[in-house]
Design brief:
There is one protein chain. This protein is of the alpha/beta class. It has a single domain, classed as Rossmann fold, CATH 3.40.50. About 30% of the residues lie in helices and about 15% in strands. It contains 6 helices and 6 strands. β4 (about 130-135), α5 and β5 form a beta-alpha-beta unit. α3 (about 85-105) crosses α4. It starts with 10 loop residues before the first helix and ends in a 17-residue tail after the last helix.
Amino acid sequence: MKRVELTPPSATLFVLEPLRAAADYIAGMAPFSVPLPPGDGHPVLVFPGLGVNGAATSDLRNRLQQVGYEVHDWEQGVNFGPGADHDLLLERLGDHLKQIHAWHRSSVSLVGWSYGGIYARELAAKHSELVRQVITLATPVADNWEATHVGWLLNMLSSGIAPMSHVSTRHSDADVPVPWASVYSKTDGIVAWEACVSTGSTNHRNIEVEDVSHLGMVQHPEVLRVVAGLLAQHRDGPGQAIMPAAGQ
């Protein structure tokens, strides 16, 4: 897909991220006015964002567990982003995916937050026969990381390696051979929402959630509703068209 030059979100949105994320966290702790759709028990593998570990996605995993899914953390500790051991990490993640698939005898849905969505897409491209669908939350497409406020963090965690040098061209969004939904918010203060939108695949759709921060993507009740709704689809495995979300 043709590379698009984008810029990071406004300074105002960036500065307000922590405050808005706290509000999203509080909103996510409240009981849902409308119950989430019940799960069918299939396994879900969740990938954390850059610079955090599975503790950051524990509330999301607990919510999905409560409605009936078998939810797994990625079990690789802190997400340090790309590095010289990227291929080795993908191999370990692939082995973990194979184990989950074998344990449950079912295809696995992959949910990736921010940079965690890169790993979800990579695994779906390499192991499509094991994957039911991919859901990315505020994850840039291809090499649009210049449209974020985390370039310095990527450089620090990856020891100066170009942020997307290992993954941006190897598997484009068009290569994801299973249903894939990209969830984004126009009020994301860390990643430009335009960077998360793709038109490169017939298996893909973009879903906007309103007034959500980047850090609050794994807490906000509307995001949880969208994720639960997507997980309730594709009950016969990958290959079905993605149904429109409410209001889309």
